[in-house]
Amino acid sequence: KYTLPAGEYTYTVTCEGCETETGIFIVENTEKTVNVGLIKKLRFEDFFTQITEKATVTNQMGAYPYNPVKNGDEKYLQSSNKANGSKSTITFEFQKPSVLSFEYMVSEEGSTSTSSDYGLIIKRNGTQIAGFEEVSDAWKTYQISADVGDIITLAYSCYKNDYSMTPSDENWLRLKNFNAEPLTKVTFDGMPENAVITVRRNAEVIT
């Protein structure tokens, strides 16, 4: 509580784990109450609440972690590596069979015509499954299956071309909306060895 003379004041409220709030209030001749609504600070772990029971998720330690970003109503993780050849990596170690899905945007200005290992690199147990070198104009969705013990990595590999890039060019990977749907083992029994099985889901051939 403060006892203040009439006038206009500014205030700042800080609290560990919350966003800093600032504002203005005016004191007149009656008692004044300032309502403060602190917002919880966005954390890396907040993006993986849908998969915590299926996989352990690790942010890269050291120089280039993924940082939470809040841009208006939109929330995403963004890579922090800017140096040529550097990487930011998220690692998923699966305890249950799952299909991992997420949305991504890539801004890989320096290497979109190099056909090399830059941009978003997706690996399963150390083997590259997919790679995307592009300058995304919208969010895109990707999914990958994982068995028990599988390790999936999502890495942003940065290529900085000082000859053709301009100061306004940006190199980053953004990720959001992580989910993991469970996989259930299905076995077909009682058929001859030369039988062919086709499985579909919504007209899409699975196998």
What would you note in describing this structure?
A hairpin with a 2-residue loop joins strand 4 (67-71) and strand 5. This protein has no helices and 14 strands. With 207 residues, it is mainly β. The model has no long low-confidence stretch (mean pLDDT 85). The radius of gyration is 24 Å and the shape is elongated. It starts with 6 loop residues before the first strand and ends with a strand. The strands form four sheets. A five-stranded antiparallel sheet has the order 3-6-11-8-9, with no helix packed on it. The protein has a five-stranded antiparallel sheet with strand order 4-5-12-7-10, with no helix packed on it. It has a two-stranded antiparallel sheet with strand order 1-2. It has strands at 7-13, 21-27, 55-59, 67-71, 74-78, 87-94, 98-108, 119-124, 127-132, 140-146, 151-157, 171-182, 200-201, 204-205. It is 0% helix and 43% strand.
User: H/E order of the elements?
Assistant: EEEEEEEEEEEEEE
| Unreliable residue stretches | none
Radius of gyration: 24 Å
Largest sheet: 5 strands, antiparallel
Task: Tag the structure with descriptive keywords.
five-stranded antiparallel beta sheet, mainly beta, 207 residues
How does the SSE layout of this entry go?
Layout: E1 7-13, E2 21-27, E3 55-59, E4 67-71, E5 74-78, E6 87-94, E7 98-108, E8 119-124, E9 127-132, E10 140-146, E11 151-157, E12 171-182, E13 200-201, E14 204-205
Brief sketch in words of this structure:
The chain has 207 residues and is mainly β. The chain has strands spanning 7-13, 21-27, 55-59, 67-71, 74-78, 87-94, 98-108, 119-124, 127-132, 140-146, 151-157, 171-182, 200-201, 204-205. The model has no long low-confidence stretch (mean pLDDT 85).
